[in-house]
Amino acid sequence: MSSGAARASRPYTRGDEGPRMSNANVSASASLRSERDDAKGARSPQTDSKFSGTAHKRSASGNPRPTARAIEGRRYEERRVTERTYVSRIERVPPASPGKQQRQSGPTEKKVPELRRQKSAEWKQSDREQGSEPSAAGWMPEVTLLPHSSAPLASRVSIPPLASTVPQAPQPIPLIELSLEAQEAAMVEDLLFVFMGFEGQYIRFAKGYDPNEERDRLSGPTFKILPGLDPSLHDLTTSMLKMATYYAALEAFVDVQSRADFGLVNHALCASIRKFLQDYLIMIAQLETQFLTNDTFTVHVLNIHTISTSHLMLQLYSLAQELLKRNALLDDESEEEGDDSDDDYDKVIERLTDGGELLPGSMTAKKICKGGVVLGLVTKRLESMSGDPAARALLTSLLREASRPYMVMLNEWLHRGAINDPHSEFLVKEQKSIRRERLEQDYTDEYWERRYTIRDHDVPPQLEAVKDKVLLAGKYLNVVRECGGVDVSQVVTRVPTSFDDSRFLENVNNAYAHANESLMQLLLTTHALPARLRSMKHYFFLDPSDYFSYFLELGSSELRKPVKSVNTTKLQSLLDLVLRQPGSVVSLDPFKEDVKVEMNEITLIKSLQRVVNITGIEQGESLQPISNQTVEGDKNAVGFTSLQLDYAVPFPVSLVISRKTVWRYQALFRYLLSLRHLESQLSSTWQTQTRGISWAHKGPNQALEIWKRRAWTLRARMLVFVQQLLYFCTSEVIEPNWTRFMARLDTKEDGQDGTRPATRTVDELMQDHVDFLDTCLKECMLTNSKLLRIHSKLMQTCTIFAAYTNWLTRELERLDPDLSAENKPSTMTADQWKRFQAAKASSQRTAQNQDAAALVISPDDAEARVRNLADIIRKWEGNFSRHLQILLDALNHYAATETVVLLSLCARLSTANQGTEYAGLRTEDDTA
Question: Looking at the domain covering 528-615+633-657, what would its CATH class be?
Answer without folding.
Answer: mainly alpha
